[in-house]
Amino acid sequence: MIRAYALSGTDSEQQLHQLLVDRFGIESTAQPSAVTAAYNAHEKQGLETGRYELALAAMLPCIWIYNRVGLYILRIAKLDGNPYRDWIEAYGDESYTSEVDYMLEVIDEWAAEKDKQTRDAMTAQFLTSLQYEYDFWNYGYYGE
């Protein structure tokens, strides 16, 4: 389930990114930043553990933060003529919010069923991804 969700999300995100690349005429042969590459490697490692609880813990900050940012921007932004309308609507979408909320419930249920060592590993995956999210957004704002 988690692997399918991750792959589905990756496909959707790539389509959205391609839409924006095409819209703004961005050179798409650029290599990912060091932050992006490290973050992607971390999420991939979480998936490759074969442990669904660690995979979701690694993915959760990305989907959760994007959703909450999308919801916030959706409340305050003018959408007419907004070049980022597709992004805002995708991540602020009610069905996407429902999926994220469901994943939050699932991870809480899984954590409640696991031993302390597994919960600690889940927390480590989550916090590492959370730091990468911060670094990713910081890089977008400041290039650092």
Question: What does this protein look like?
Answer:
- This protein is an all-alpha fold and 144 residues long.
- The protein has a single domain, classed as Up-down Bundle (Heme Oxygenase, Chain A), CATH 1.20.910.
- It is built from 6 helices and no strands.
- Helix 3 (52-76) packs across helix 4 (85-91) and helix 3 (52-76) runs parallel beside helix 6.
- It is globular, with a radius of gyration of 16 Å.
- The model has no long low-confidence stretch (mean pLDDT 89).
Sum up the structure in keywords:
144 residues; mainly alpha; Heme Oxygenase, Chain A; 6 helices; 0% strand
In short, what is this structure?
By secondary structure, the chain is mainly alpha-helical. The protein has 6 helices and no strands. It has a single domain (39-142), classed as Up-down Bundle (Heme Oxygenase, Chain A), CATH 1.20.910.
List the helices and strands and how they pair.
Layout: H1 2-24, H2 34-48, H3 52-76, H4 85-91, H5 94-113, H6 116-142
Helix pairs in contact: 2-3, 2-6, 3-4, 3-5, 3-6
Q: Assign the CATH superfamily.
A: Heme oxygenase-like
Q: CATH architecture, please?
A: Up-down Bundle
Return the CATH class.
Mainly Alpha
- The CATH topology assignment is Heme Oxygenase, Chain A
Q: Briefly note the structural class of the backbone.
A: mainly alpha
Number of helices: 6
Task: Let me know the number of strands.
Answer: 0
Count of the separate structural domains? 1
Compute the average pLDDT.
Answer: 89
For the largest beta-sheet, the strand count, sense and barrel status come to: none
Distance between the termini: 35 Å
State the helical fraction: over 70%
Strand content: under 5%
Described by the principal axes of the CA atoms, the overall outline is globular
Radius of gyration: 16 Å
- N-to-C order of helices and strands: HHHHHH
Indicate the low-confidence ranges by residue numbers: none
